[in-house]
Specification:
The protein has about 375 residues and is an alpha/beta fold. The chain has 15 helices and 12 strands.
Length: about 375
């Protein structure tokens, strides 16, 4: 067996991999960082965003394209394509003597046989997914739960029956959409296999929610979050620091903490505001309506939020814009950036200590978000 593996590994794969070259499925442009590092399979259930009006996003990631529901048959067809690709990759593993196990030797052999597959996004995704156990799936794009419940249930069941190794299926969802679903519908989705929901809270301040045209109130966020947890989902809520700039910092922090305390989500994920040309919020920044906070002011906003936060979940800084500073010629971050973050309330004082460390450091050592985004200083 050892000699057979060595011989096949050093030569070309004596199986037909043309199917891998010809197979493709539709993939959207975004997913949460926690669904990339965990090597999730991406299945596009809807296209683009059903709201498309938030001033900090404005659907630019989707090129302002119109929201579309994909049919169940379309989605199932993509799942079938993934299955066909997985079967072909496993066939190579069997041919090489690895018994269906997808390892680096299998990948090397396939790419040697057809180097073009190394730049085939669908192949790379499916291979990596299998390599890491085929355990997690993320349903794209921005608001999968807007699908009719019976259709989404059908997709979830088909996905789980096609790939029995799946342990977690997650999706983005708008709070307003979750709030409109009945508790029974949400429980049905949970039972069918949807296990985690990511909701963009951004802020719990109603004035700021109106300003950025989020299309939802703090009360609706609370209703959606509580309902999602009651239905049995793991819940990630995203907070956008400095969303209201210097002028609304304190109310943003305190009201966001208030809403999060009401919901008590499993994860709070910090996402500093990102601006770029074409965004309405960037225009406000350009004309001076929005004044972005300095690095110390941003940390003070996070400090106020954390001081007022009383949850039993985890607070995560798993984004590259979270509080970087220079230490000589190196860049460092104040917070660990893994996907599980800090457990609250046990590690709350640890997070506050990191913030104090950052506030005591000379502000000139901090890397301003405008510098990291290549934005022009006013």
């Amino acid at each position: 067996m050892t000699n057979e593996r060595s011989s096949n590994h050093n030569g070309t794969v004596a199986v037909d991999i043309a199917k891998l070259r010809d197979c493709s499925f539709e993939v959207g442009p975004i997913r949460p960082p926690s669904e990339g590092g965990s090597h999730s399979l991406l299945i596009r259930a809807t296209r683009n965003c059903s709201w498309n009006r938030c001033k900090f996003c404005y659907g630019m990631i989707y090129n302002r394209e119109k929201f579309q529901l994909r049919s169940v048959d379309e989605i199932k067809s993509d799942i079938d394509t993934v299955k066909a690709m997985a079967d072909e990759i496993k066939a190579v593993s069997w041919k090489l003597g690895y018994g269906g196990v997808v390892n680096s030797e299998v990948g090397t052999a396939i790419v040697r046989s057809d180097p073009g597959l190394n730049s085939n996004h669908c192949f790379v995704m499916v291979f990596n997914w299998l390599y890491f156990g085929a355990k997690t799936v993320f349903l794209q794009d921005a608001n999968t739960l807007i699908m009719p419940t019976d259709q989404l249930v059908e997709v979830l069941k088909y996905l789980k029956s096609t790939f029995p190794t799946i342990e977690r299926i997650t999706s983005y969802a708008r709070a307003k959409t979750v709030a409109k679903k009945s508790l029974d519908e949400l429980k049905e989705l949970k039972q069918a296999g949807l296990s985690r929901i990511h909701i963009g809270l951004e802020t719990g301040d109603d004035e700021l929610l109106r300003y950025v045209d989020k299309g939802v109130t703090a009360a609706e966020h609370i209703e959606a979050g509580k309902k999602a947890i009651e239905a049995g989902f793991e819940l990630s809520e995203y907070v956008m620091t400095d969303l209201g700039g210097r002028g609304m910092s304190e109310q943003h922090a305190k009201n966001t903490a208030r809403v999060l305390n009401e919901i008590n989500p499993h994860f709070v994920r910090m996402r500093p505001v990102m601006l770029g040309p074409g965004l309405p919020l960037y225009q406000d920044y350009e004309n001076g309506t929005l004044v972005l906070s300095s690095p110390h002011e941003r940390l003070q906003e996070v400090k106020t939020l954390i001081e007022n936060l009383n949850i039993t979940g985890r607070v995560c800084f798993d984004h590259f814009l979270n509080a970087w500073y220079r230490d000589g010629n190196r860049r460092q971050t104040l917070f660990k950036q893994d996907y599980n973050g800090y457990k609250f309330p046990e590690e709350k004082e640890s997070v506050l200590a990191h913030i104090e460390e950052g506030l005591k450091a000379d502000e000139s050592t901090h890397i301003h978000v405008k510098e990291m985004l290549g934005m022009r200083h006013l």
